[in-house]
Amino acid sequence: MKLSVISFIIILVALGCKNPKNTEKASSGEVEQDTLVEKRTEIQKYKNDTWNFAFEYLEELIVSEGQLPGNSVVINVYPESMNISKPLAIHEKPEIPYIAFFPKGFGVDAPSGSKKSIKDWNANLNLSFNVDETESQVYLLKNGEPWAYFLRFHQPPEKWNKYGGVFVHYAVTNFKASCVSAMGESKPMEQCDPMGEDKVSFSGKVEEESKNKLDGVLESLYFTQDDTEERKDFSDLIKVEKPLPNIEITSPLEIKGKASGSWFFEAEAPVKLADKDYKILAETSINAKGKWMTHDFVPFSGKINFENAPDDERGYLIFEKSNASGKPELDRKYTLPVLFPPK
Q1: Which pTM does this prediction carry?
Q2: d(Cα 39, Cα 45) in Å, to the nearest integer?
């Protein structure tokens, strides 16, 4: 096991790990390992009816479906301009920006280096669904930048198994791996024992342009159910009357609006206040007024208290659809930009 991890680190610095090519039998027919699923002009939409998820992606990105060893299905998103050997899994070259969707999981060792759970991290992700913040991991460079995430779910999406997840890998320039012994002394990577007391760290700089493109995919990602109606626009689900977007807020903040009765469970729905990095500052609930077991709009109100506004004035008020099941395909989040008072 130790040898396996050491080998991975050395390979990551050099060429990365590759997997042999296979084909996947999908519901739509035989899909070649490197099949180009969609051709783009500007913003494109991708919807996978086999694994029930969808997202939007910008030009210069490609979506491909493939299969990894052990009959593990993978769906990749990556730049068209890069000469990449596919499919992409977890241990790839540092300079490759990509996303890998694993509906059935993929049994390999996680990346080495510094990492934290999303729960313990000092930021968060702008997602339309909730993740298991304890099981989901963020992988960090020496400078504190996240270079990768592995997202796990409280309840797996429909058709996914409990091992399924989403791996996000940003491109890192000037990448370097280093090893330090328990005594604080530097060691050559080929002598490093990360399964023992040695510690591995990665340094470099995340490439911003490609990161933003992958973030756009993540922010538009959602999960679906079989035999359900088309995903509704937010205008058909919730309308916030107070506060208005991009207005300076103070504590306590009064919240008013109306939402479809389906937004609530037992007449309540959660609301969170976040800073510009989506770190949660405060939480509350809005309460439906009157009969809420209806698809019609129902008035709601609430109040949220917060202290110690962040240094950056930008923030978000996040309205979440109440989802007692925990299933990501039933999650919806409406994000309203707000401004904190200047310090």
Answers
A1: 0.85
A2: 10
Cis bond upstream, residue 252 (ω within 30): yes
Specify if 261 maps to a domain: yes
Q: Are 39 and 49 in contact (CB under 8 A)?
A: no
Q: Is residue 229 part of a domain?
A: no
Mark whether 185 and 163 lie in a shared domain.
Answer: yes
Residues 35 and 178 in one domain: yes
Preceding peptide of 243 cis, ω within 30°:
yes
3-state secondary structure 99-144: EEEECCCCCCCCCCCCEEECCCCCCCCCCCCCCCCCCCEEEECCCC
In the listed set 178, 200, 223, which residue is the last one of a domain according to the structure? 223
Of 223, 244, 259, which residue is a domain's last?
A: 223
- Label residue 20 by pLDDT band (50, 70, 90): very low
Q: Where are the alpha helices (DSSP H) in the chain?
A: 2-13, 208-220
3-state SS, residue 209: helix
Residues making up the chain, counted from first to last: 343
Range of the domain at 128: 2-223
Quickly state the pLDDT bin for 194 (edges 50, 70, 90).
confident
Query: How far is C-alpha 323 from the chain's CA centre?
Result: 19
Residues whose CB is less than 8 angstroms from the CB of residue 102 and which lie 6 or more positions away in sequence, other chains included: 72, 73, 74, 163, 164, 165, 166, 167
Domain assignment present for 239: yes
In a domain, 228, yes or no: no
